[in-house]
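note to self: dont lose this again. the chain is below, predicted strucutre after it. 428 aa total, dont forget to put it in the shared folder this time
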Amino acid sequence: MSPSTSILLTNVRVFDSSGSEPYAGEVLITGERIAEVRRGSGDLPRDGVRVVDGRGQFLMSGLCDAHTHFSWTNSADLPGLGTLGVEEHTLLSARSAITYLNCGYTMCVGAASAKPRLDVVIRDAINDGLLAGPRYLANCQEIAVTGGALVDGITAFADGPEEMRKRVRTNVALGADLVKLSMSGEEITGNQHAEDNYFSDEEVLAATTEAHRRGLRVCTHARSAESVKMSLRNNVDIIYHASFVDEEGLDMLEARKDEVFVAPGLNWLVATLKDAAAFGYPPEAAEAAGYRRELECAIAGLREMRRRGIRVLPGGDYGFAWTPHGTYARDLQHFVELLGYTPMETLLAATRLGGEIMRMPDELGQIKPGFYADLILVDGDPLKDITVLQNRAKIVGIMKGGVFHKDPDRSTTENVPDVADQPVIVNA
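---
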């Protein structure tokens, strides 16, 4: 839907994601973009403009989840993602996209799809106005070498440089924006360990060279120290997890901090330790598998990344049974409480850095003239209580491209159900 009326948001506290403190002001939106931003009120035109009184509430950019799985269905049955019918799976993926937008997320980076085209189809439906959802960078199935898959049924396989190149070309042919390499393990599998590394340098370099040649970026599931360093040696763009990064890896990250992003998906570790018991994975099992140690190592490494100015973004691995869709802003709380980020730094990571990882740093993630009007209005102050962003009732306005998805004068979203309104789905 294209906006047809200019909108003036007045009497708002503008958090513009420049690094400055919020200020009382007003924002004029014309078409899809922000036309003007002013401190104070009364200076911007009102004639022929819809005026929305923000009642002194907190106006900020929409949020970014840097590690998104639309096609994860809140299930504890991960192999079932591979056998779920494609028609049902498409509908569930669409519902995940709607849930993200309902929670104030206007930017998402696809971190792998359970079936080859699911992400691409949902992205295109959003872009064509057929489906409500965030701006999205689509991925295909994650790529693993033989013997290195976390879940066979949702994985594409490649061995050696030539097969890697072919897999990348498949992503290109399907219309993806990204390529995902599954380089290290995951303790919950029981046999694929987080400190493993399954790829060779030659395989990673073949993937990144082919992807970059065709305009795609490469992200890696890289928990082990070696997988992080291998990613950096071979020009990977986005590193997921980095739990066991070592000093050498930190030095390499710092040297490429203007080129590489890290998205740790911290809530997966926290929730696996605290919230998985109801789904058959009690805390003692998680600790025995090594998740407590991994969380401690991840916290230490990420705190050092913050100190060194490495670009770390919140979000990741939502859509499992104990990390359900609709709870995305938990990562913001973890940044503050576990990693030592200030609320200001956390909001900047979730907004301004979001524009950067989306490859639109001059159009997304800030409230400035010329930027897309992707905004949320919050009844509360995230700089004082970051957890307010976990309360959907407190996000009273959601705008994408100059159109209200949730109108603050009505405080209702479009009449579409989302995952947060439904029970957990467990595949048969």
